Amino acid sequence: MTYAAIKGWGKCMPPAILSNDDLATFLETNDEWITSRTGMKERRISHVNVSELAHIACEQALAVAGKSALDVDMIVFGSTTFDEQCPNSASNVQRLLGAHNSACMDVNTACTSGMYSLSVATAMIKSGAINSALIIGAEVISRVMEWSNRDVAVLFGDGAAALYLEASDEKSGVIAESLGCFGESRDILAVRGLGVKYANQDHVLGNTWWNFLGQDIFKKAVAGMAQACDKTLEKLEFSNEDIDLVVPHQANLRIIDSLAKKLKTPKDKVFINIERYGNMSAATALVALVEAIEEDKINAGDNVLMPAFGGGLTWSAHMLHFNKKPQSSAQTDVTLPVCEQSGLELVQGIIESRK
C-alpha cells in the first residue's frame, strides 16, 4: 500500500504583532475580556500577500525534507484570502519557488482549507497520479477583516504553514480522515463583500462585513469536529487511548476544551498555541502541527488527531501516523522582506484605505 509520508514541514509567521492592548486602542475591549473569552493574547499581521507567506513556508518544508523545488509534482494551496481569483495563487507559489514541474491547485473550504488540501494531495499520491506534493494552509485575513466589528476583529490573524509529502511504502502520514459540511448553516459564518455576487453593484469589492453568530458557531464547531473524530477513529477501529496527541484547529480555547472533554482527552495531550496567533483560518491547524514538531511533542509511532472546522460550515478530522520521529535542524535562507511597521500601524493603514 502507498502512503503519503510527511517528509518536510515549515511555517512563516509575519513579524508584526497585534496585541490585545493594541485592539483596545480602536475597539471597546481589553486584554482580560479577549483572553477570558478566547484564550488569545496576540496575533500576526502580514505586510505581504498570502502567496509570499506560503512561499517561505514551502521553502522551509523543502529544506527540512532535503528536496529541491523541482522535486515537487503538485502544489495544493488552501486559503480563503488568495491574492487573486484568477490566476490561482498556487501558480504564484510555483513561480516564486521555481517548482516548474508541479501542477497547481487552490482549495477554499475556509478554516479547513489546509486540511482539505492535505486530503487532496494524499489521495493523489496514493492513487499514483503524483509522487510528491507541497500542501499549504495560509491566510492574510487582516486584509478582509471588518475591523470595526469586535466579535470578529479580536479573533483572527495571518500566517502560513506547508508540508512536503512523498510516496512511501511505510505506514506514515494520513492513515484515515473524515470530511463533511453543515451546508444548511453556512450563513452563520460568512464574509460578505467578496466574490462576483457583489460585483456590478453599489459596492467596492474587498470592503467586507461579516456574519458571525458566535453561540451557533460554537455548537456546530464542537459537534462537527466531534463527529469527524468519531468517524475517523471508527475507520481505524481505534479507541481514544490510541491517540497520542490532538492538534486541533485553534479557533477559540473554549471550543478546544469542549472538544477535549468529548474525546475524553487530557489537556496534556492537546497541543495549543492559540495565545500566540489567534485563528489564522486555513493556516491554523498546520501551523500548530509544525510547532508541535518543533517543540518535540511528536515521537516515533505516534498517532496525531487533527480536527478542524470552518465557514461553510465545513468540518474534518485527520489521523496522522509518524513511523519515525520528525526532526530536522535544516533551515532555509529565504526570508520575507523587512517589515517596518507594527501590527497596529498595518491595521490602521487597512482601516484608512477603506474610507
UniProtKB/TrEMBL annotation:
Residues 105-180 form the Beta-ketoacyl-[acyl-carrier-protein] synthase III N-terminal domain. Pfam families: ACP_syn_III (PF08545), ACP_syn_III_C (PF08541). It comes from the Bacteria. InterPro entries: ACP_syn_III_C (IPR013747), ACP_syn_III_N (IPR013751), FabH (IPR004655), Thiolase-like (IPR016039). Residues 233-320 form the Beta-ketoacyl-[acyl-carrier-protein] synthase III C-terminal domain. Pathway: Lipid metabolism. Belongs to the thiolase-like superfamily. FabH family. This is 3-oxoacyl-[acyl-carrier-protein] synthase 3. It comes from Thalassotalea eurytherma. The lineage of its organism: Bacteria, Pseudomonadati, Pseudomonadota, Gammaproteobacteria, Alteromonadales. The gene is fabH_2.
